[in-house]
Amino acid sequence: MDLSELADTLIERFTNPPPVVTVLRLSGLIMAGGGLLRGGLNLANLAAPLAAAFRPKRLAAVALTVNSPGGSPVQSALIGNRIRALAEEKSVPVVAFVEDLAASGGYWLAAAADEIFADPASILGSIGVVSAGFGLDEAIRRLGISRRLHTAGARKRMLDPFLPEKPEDVARLKILQEEIHDTFKAWVRLRRQGRLAAPEDDLFNGDVWTGRRAVELGLADGLGDLRTVMRARFGDKVRLVAVGERRAWWRPRLFRSEELPAGLLAAIEERLSWARWGL
């Protein structure tokens, strides 16, 4: 390129700058923060990157790349609501691109976007609520260990893993799960209004679908990847600008000894959450 061509290029970029699409990656388990190994998706970690994603001038859209097995419904709601608040404040469209997985809370995040695109082999859905734990009362009994738990309040012992499970505790848990499920369903109805193409009993039963089937059901809007869709929409010169904090290379390796048990448990929990979907 000679000086004349370079000058023309610079003048063109100055007088007619390309549209900007910021790209924010939402990958991992959704959970409240704490500990060096617990850097999952939560509002505390994402508040600054979200603000940065909506800050640039000449912003054409914000793209979310979603790859999450879910997690905390509270953090999912907080993040989703923040995305919507910023999108409405800045009058900027938000487009989600599902990678391997947007299940449960991961789909909650994707639904915060105005449009959802996925790969044909992506997994979407799991619009439900799950609680998991272990029953260790028989194990400690065989070891000759007795559980000593003193509470003020009859419900404070609910679902203690070292005590036998009680039907009334399970019934109370079911009520809580239904309330959370109702909130999840209301969010999906709001965000996918007029686009859901199947009965709610089929869509909101915790099932999952491939990206191709999700489009047919109205849970997603199309098939495609970020670069292809954004270039088709805004032109080949669109600027895709990644935002968000990069985790330091040493962060997963260094932690205090007192954080080790919690950190390992968090890592195991996240690994099991991904493994549930074969990932």
Annotate the secondary structure layout:
Elements: H1 3-15, E1 20-27, H2 43-53, E2 59-68, H3 73-90, E3 94-103, H4 105-110, E4 115-118, E5 123-125, H5 137-142, H6 167-191, H7 200-203, E6 208-210, H8 211-217, E7 222-223, H9 226-234, E8 239-243, H10 260-275
Helix pairs in contact: 2-3
SS elements, strand count = 8
Report the helical percentage: 40-55%
For the report, how would you describe the main beta sheet?
8 strands, mixed
- Let me know the average pLDDT: 84
- Helix/strand order: HEHEHEHEEHHHEHEHEH
The helix-and-strand class reads alpha/beta
Helix run count:
10
CATH topology of the domain at 17-127 and 198-275: 2-enoyl-CoA Hydratase, Chain A, domain 1
Rg measurement, Å: 23 Å
**What is the CATH architecture annotation of the domain at 17-127 and 198-275?**
Alpha-Beta Complex
Query: What percentage of the residues does DSSP assign to strands (E)?
Result: 15-25%
| Parts with pLDDT < 50 across at least 5 consecutive residues | 248-260
CATH homologous superfamily caption of the domain at 17-127 and 198-275: 2-enoyl-CoA Hydratase, Chain A, domain 1
Q: Report the end-to-end length measured between terminal Cα atoms.
A: 47 Å
> Which overall shape is indicated by the principal axes computed on the Cα atoms?
elongated
Instruction: Determine and state the CATH class of the domain at 17-127 and 198-275.
Output: Alpha Beta
Which terms summarize this structure?
single chain, 279 residues, 2-enoyl-CoA Hydratase, Chain A, domain 1, 8 strands
